[in-house]
Specification:
The chain is built from eleven helices and 23 strands. The longest helix is centred in the last third of the chain and has 21 residues.
């Protein structure tokens, strides 16, 4: 029985890592399985050439798009998951995002829970992930039961001027909710050094509030929590009834290992979680595990995201640029009745980052100039869930990802709104080479905001998971990453995954404390006795 646990959590990112943190003080035997290892702490962490041009930390694996063309997804497999590289912008979904939303390109369905259900967990997640912000600035923000746990990160001078100019133009810029270990009132406190190597970079000082630093590391201080790295889960096995997961099969360096638990939680990311369930097809589950509804892998969403680089007429000396947001067009505009989306500042570019998007003939001096004058923006428009946008696996277990964007008109209009504001913000558009104002939509390989492939809901015919993120078809299988999202909203999804993991954690604690059903425990134990 040495390899049997109370809970196995597969994945250590925003969902899995946060869940481990919630369960760790319970004393239950918890096993974390992570397909990667610890991210190496090395000077290259902050080397833009290594991170962006050489993709030093990006997986080498290939997925296949709808045209049969292999591509390298921008996925990083380390303890903490993709939060090691995220921009740590931790938004709550708007209250209306939980209801049905009509878009130009389709309908986003209502969630089976409301904002009220998640609000206390949003507050807990903000505290856990050191979220800095200022309530009352964003006209679309939902109600809060209390203030942000930490004060907003201040704008540096050039960004403060952008903020002031937008306010004078009648708009409502606000301080982004950012997860960072920073105390601007006391230079002796906090690990953040407020550098330009934040968005897209791993943090050498542990100043970024990622799942490894904030959740997994403190969880491992409890002796009942075990982490196994370089342990890729290849499939899940069930008993003869098909109702209970009895085996978690792991490939560790070419060697197969098996573990079991009273409860198994999948949190591998929206693509890999769906792929794992599909690879776990069996006689009892011929279409894939937890897939009697045929929705597993379907409704893949990944936001319409664009990186836009505006060129300031005056130099932009900002280092920590992840501080400013704009939601005035979130629900639409005077000239368009459908939601457009969200605008925020990106991490500050340098010539190496620009080089990745510029033509081969772009001279180095021009890139230096652009980098010194660049103000960088990230635009997000909601992606609508379509059943044919989906993850599948072939007989060899290879991941296929089919994706077509249909809500492109609002995104085009959002780009136009930002370009209309360039003059207001003191940026030039016509006196520079056309390629130096980048409006580049993130391609299919950009999976940072992906969600929706194992959606939750009340009806087992149209959803894979129930309201507690337990599989309808199984008694002891849960999914807690962004796979459960029925819609994608137009803000960063990480905080919602974290808050939901805390919510599911409370449900699991109640269930484990009450004692699992005796028949369920027997079904889990039988394979171990045979072995």
């Amino acid at each position: 029985m040495a390899d049997h646990y109370d809970v196995i959590i597969i994945g250590t990112g925003a969902g899995g890592g946060t869940l481990a943190h919630r369960l760790a003080p319970s004393g239950k035997r918890i096993l974390l399985l992570e397909r990667g290892g610890y991210l190496p702490r090395e000077p290259e962490n902050w080397d833009s050439k290594e991170v962006f041009l050489k993709s030093r930390y990006v997986t080498q694996e290939k997925w296949i798009d709808k045209n049969g063309t292999p591509f390298r997804p921008h996925a990083q497999y380390y303890v903490g998951g993709n939060t090691k590289f995220y921009g740590a912008i931790l938004f709550r979904l708007r209250e209306q995002d939980f209801g049905e939303v009509r878009h130009y390109g389709g309908i986003s369905p209502a969630w089976p829970i409301s904002y009220d259900d998640l609000e206390p967990y949003y507050a807990q997640a903000e505290k856990l992930y050191l979220v800095h912000g200022k309530a009352g600035e964003d006209p679309t923000e939902p109600y809060r039961s209390g203030p942000f746990p930490y004060p907003a990160v201040s704008h540096e001078p050039r960004l403060q001027k952008v903020h002031d100019d937008l306010r004078k133009a009648g708009l409502n810029p606000f301080h982004l909710p950012v997860g960072v270990d920073l105390d601007e009132s006391d230079p002796e406190k906090g690990r953040c050094v407020r550098c330009a190597k934040f968005d897209g970079f791993p943090c050498l000082t542990d100043g970024k509030a990622d799942a490894h630093v904030c959740a997994v590391r403190p969880a491992l201080e409890h002796p009942n929590v075990t982490l196994e790295t370089h342990a890729k889960v290849t499939r899940l096995e069930t008993d003869e009834s098909g109702r209970t997961v009895t085996g978690v099969v792991v490939d560790r360096g070419g060697h197969e290992e098996r573990f079991s638990a009273d409860v198994v939680v999948v949190s591998c990311g929206a693509v890999n979680s769906a792929a794992l369930l599909l690879r776990s097809a069996s006689e009892q589950h011929p279409g894939g595990l937890a897939n009697s509804s045929d929705v597993v892998g379907r409704h893949y969403m990944a936001h319409l995201n664009s990186a836009v680089i505006a060129i300031s007429q005056s130099p932009n000396d900002t280092k920590f640029q992840k501080t400013l947001g704009l939601n005035d067009y979130y629900w639409g505009a005077d000239d368009f009745g459908f939601p457009l989306g969200h605008i925020q500042t990106l991490g500050k570019t340098d010539k190496n980052i620009l080089k990745g998007g510029a033509p081969w003939f772009a001279p180095g001096l021009a890139l230096d100039y652009l980098a010194r004058h660049a103000i960088d923006f990230w635009l997000t428009t909601e992606d609508v869930p379509l059943p044919d946008n989906r993850v599948t696996v072939d007989r060899q277990g290879q991941i296929h990802l089919a994706k077509t964007y249909v809500n492109t008109e609002p995104h085009r209009r959002l780009l136009g709104k930002l370009k209309d504001l360039l003059g207001v913000m003191g940026c030039q558009e016509t006196t520079i080479p056309r390629w130096s104002v980048l409006g580049q939509q993130i391609p299919i390989a950009g999976i940072a905001h992906n969600c929706g492939t194992v959606r939750f809901g009340h009806d087992p015919a149209t959803s894979a998971l129930d309201v507690n993120c337990k599989a309808h078809d199984l008694d002891n299988l849960y999914v807690v990453d962004t796979s459960f999202f029925p819609s994608s909203s137009a803000v960063n999804p990480a905080l919602t995954a974290m808050a939901n993991a805390l919510r599911v954690g409370d449900h699991l604690l109640e269930r484990l404390d009450a004692g699992l059903d005796a028949d369920l425990v027997k079904r889990i134990a039988e394979p171990l006795e045979v072995a």
